[in-house]
Amino acid sequence: xKSLMRVLSLLGAPSAEKHFFAKLLGxxxxxxxxxxxxxxxxxxxxxxxxxxxxxxxxxGSAAGSLLPSKVVLPVVMQAVQGARQSGYxxxxxxxxxxxxxQLDMLRNAGVAAEVVHLALPEARATHRRGKRRVxxxxxxxxxxxxxxxxxxxxxxxxxxxxxxxxxxxxDTDAPAVEARCAAWRSAAEPLLQRLRSRGSGLVEVKVxxxxxxxxxxxxxxxxxxxxxxxxxAQG
Length: 235
Description:
Helix content: 40-55%
Distance between the termini: 35 Å
CATH topology: Rossmann fold
Shape: globular
């Protein structure tokens, strides 16, 4: 049959910094990073048929809950096919598969998703969410003391600390954060159990307080030679 596209899928609870590590991996491996949320937003912005379905699904679902696979997966598959047609044999995917059903749908479409689980203890997810900041220079995730500001611990730039987005209630409101984590867990747990029992297609990496340390662990887990995060981010 046709050769399988290798997809490294980053899976993790809200605030496990999936997008940050995906960006580093994409730069490190020189492959595209496909973020499900952005792909869906693009469809909505372009008023495509899929975009209208996505809007409808979003209106009908509680904030933070999972959208139906039949709406999400075709958009993801289209992006993966696009990467393949551009000559890539690997892509980084964030935000899918998020359930056993999605894993099977991808596999049936010829996509062998290798799941990288960024494991973050639940209590820390809630705590970190309200303190999210990134360096305006290199995008490094920081959880600074309340006053913030000052030099970035990673690139030393003085641009200070920027917020990726103004924190929404989904980031700071404890019950909302808890609901998001619960929605994530109820779909992801069976997926992780399936992969653990299969004994392949899963790499689990603990998200440590120090992002540089997590990045080192992640590279080793994927069999890559270590490279500093800043070098990768600038790559």
